[in-house]
UniProtKB/TrEMBL annotation:
Gene3D superfamilies: YVTN repeat-like/Quinoprotein amine dehydrogenase. SUPFAM superfamilies: WD40 repeat-like (SSF50978). It comes from the Eukaryota. Keywords: Repeat. InterPro entries: WD-EF-hand_domain (IPR051242), WD40/YVTN_repeat-like_dom_sf (IPR015943), WD40_repeat_dom_sf (IPR036322). This is WD repeat-containing protein 64.
Length: 200
């Protein structure tokens, strides 16, 4: 994993090793409030405190997740300085909402420690909600702050693209969804034109 600045020069990189296992990182994003990097692999959420100096690398592994995670994004819904909301899509058609706070990670307590730390955390200690929105893999999730909505897409021909309030992940109310033959593999939003473009 690398952190790159605005001039596209790599600051540094840090390899993750999971007890002799190898796992592809299927998505990553930045957590603006906690100032960490979040990444997902097969059944694992990684939260990396990339600001750690020298040999001190604080990395938090949340596992095992119930399904295989394929994509991730941050939902910046509030100005809460010690909390980030993470949206993830999996291989069973579920979209998850994971709330992470600085207390979960103990970042304040670790500031004085110099040694590298890799800590495995149980998903049950977190507030995670999930909702099945697609009948195939969720290939992309994105939070669109201009619309106060999240989007998710799948190669599912019936439930191809969902665009709705993040609160819909916590209830069973109907969601705004679109059907596209053979599904949607990618999408983006243009705030200037006020359009969403999908590709499949």
């Amino acid at each position: 994993k690398k952190v790159i600045n605005s001039q596209r020069k790599s600051f540094f990189s840090y390899p993750f090793y999971f007890h002799q296992d190898t796992a592809w990182i299927t998505g990553c994003d930045f957590l603006p409030q906690l100032k960490c990097v979040v990444a997902v692999t097969e059944r694992t959420v990684i939260i990396w405190d990339y600001k750690s100096k020298g040999s001190q690398n604080n990395c938090f592994i949340i596992k095992p997740m119930e399904n295989g995670l394929l994509c991730v994004c941050t939902a910046t819904m509030s100005d809460h300085l010690a909390k980030d909301n993470i949206v993830m899509g999996d291989d069973k058609g579920y979209v998850h909402l994971l709330t992470v706070t600085s207390d979960h990670l103990g970042l304040k307590q670790r500031k004085g420690k110099k040694e590298s730390q890799l800590q495995v955390l149980d998903p049950k200690t977190f507030n995670i909600v999930k909702r099945k929105l697609h009948d195939d893999w969720v290939v992309k999730v994105k939070y669109i702050s201009d619309l106060n909505c999240f989007g998710s897409c799948s190669s599912d021909s019936i439930h191809s693209f969902v665009l709705d309030d993040i609160k819909r992940l916590e209830d069973n109310l109907p969601v705004k969804e679109f059907s596209v033959p053979r599904g949607v593999n990618a999408f983006t939003y243009c705030g200037k034109a006020k359009v969403i473009v999908t590709g499949g």
